[in-house]
Specification:
alpha/beta, Rossmann fold, six-stranded mixed beta sheet, 11 helices, binds NADPH dihydro-nicotinamide-adenine-dinucleotide phosphate
């Protein structure tokens, strides 16, 4: 029996154990997925190996610590310095990032997206912006503070604070801030959000499981919007593929994992 876990702080709210256990149980894969509350990101590696894990996911606020903990980082995670999936490969810790591809899966229903506005400049925004750039999508980023914008400048994004923002037209606006996660805040001043929504075709939020005040406004404007549930599903399916090392079919993983969202 292989053991997997999610590391985070807080971690009790995470749906990952339900998602992955639904796959393992229903597809008879001999594994179990638990959750681990981790205070100190610097202890990630020793905790991972002391628990005897075969793999793990990492959530807020340890994704950058996970990158630093790895013996080897592969693929897109190298570009952004953010790891959300860990694999034990013969005693070595290997890191991947499945968040950005999970989001690309989530926005497939919006069709051809050429221009995106990202609200926020944290770890999720970094992963999405770098992934959008790979697809030659034009990316603008607006954050309440300036400090984190240099990463996006270096990527070739248009960057703004609330004070310097210049409105344009967007195919998609996506909220990657944590505004609305545990409070009822908007990701920017209300008038600015209303202007942005009026200039956007589609709306997405990385937050899942609730209608954020941001999505509430999109709903009131009769816009086509979606929350972060499909992103969560997308990143989970890709992580599970790494966990089972091709022993299960992707479509079967997706089907069983999607079922767990109804629980
Ligand atoms: P970070 O802590 O790295 O970044 C948070 C960002 O939000 C920063 O840009 C911060 O601005 C901004 N922010 C925080 N509070 C406010 C506020 N009240 N008003 C405006 N801006 C604010 O977080 P992550 O990028 O790791 O996660 C962001 C969100 O995405 C979380 O809600 C998380 O749950 C969600 N998420 C969802 C996933 C999914 O699968 N659906 C996957 C990953 C994340 P500043 O720089 O000024 O502090």
């Amino acid at each position: 029996m292989k053991l997997f876990s999610i590391f985070g702080n807080p971690v009790s709210h995470s749906r990952s154990p339900l998602m992955h256990n639904s796959v393992f149980k229903n597809l008879n894969y001999p594994a179990c997925y638990t959750r681990t509350h981790l205070e100190d990101g610097a202890k990630l590696k020793e905790t991972f190996f002391s628990l005897g894990l075969s793999g793990a996911n990492v959530t807020v606020p340890h994704k950058e610590a996970a990158f630093n903990a790895c013996d080897e980082v592969r693929g897109f995670a190298k570009t952004v310095g953010v790891v959300n999936t860990l694999i034990n490969e013969n005693g070595k810790l290997i890191g991947y990032n499945t968040d950005a591809d999970g989001f690309m899966y989530a926005i497939e229903e919006f069709g051809n997206i050429k221009k995106i506005l990202i609200l926020g400049a944290g770890g999720t925004a970094k992963a999405l912006a770098a992934r959008f750039k790979q697809e030659s999508i034009e990316v603008s980023v607006i954050n309440r503070s300036e400090g984190r914008l240099s990463f996006f400048d270096n990527l070739g994004c248009q960057t703004y604070t609330w004070d310097t923002f210049e409105l344009s037209n967007y195919d998609l606006v996506v909220n990657t801030t944590s505004a609305g996660l545990k409070d009822e805040e908007l990701p920017a001043p209300k008038n600015m959000i209303l202007d942005i929504l009026a200039s956007s075709k589609y709306v997405a939020d990385a937050i899942y499981g609730k209608l954020t005040p941001f999505l509430q406004l999109a709903k009131e404007k009769n816009m086509h919007y979606k929350d972060g549930a499909d992103m969560l599903l997308g990143q989970g399916v890709l992580a599970n593929e790494f966990f089972v090392k091709k022993a299960l079919k992707k479509n079967d993983i997706k089907f069983e994992m999607a079922k767990s969202f109804l629980l």
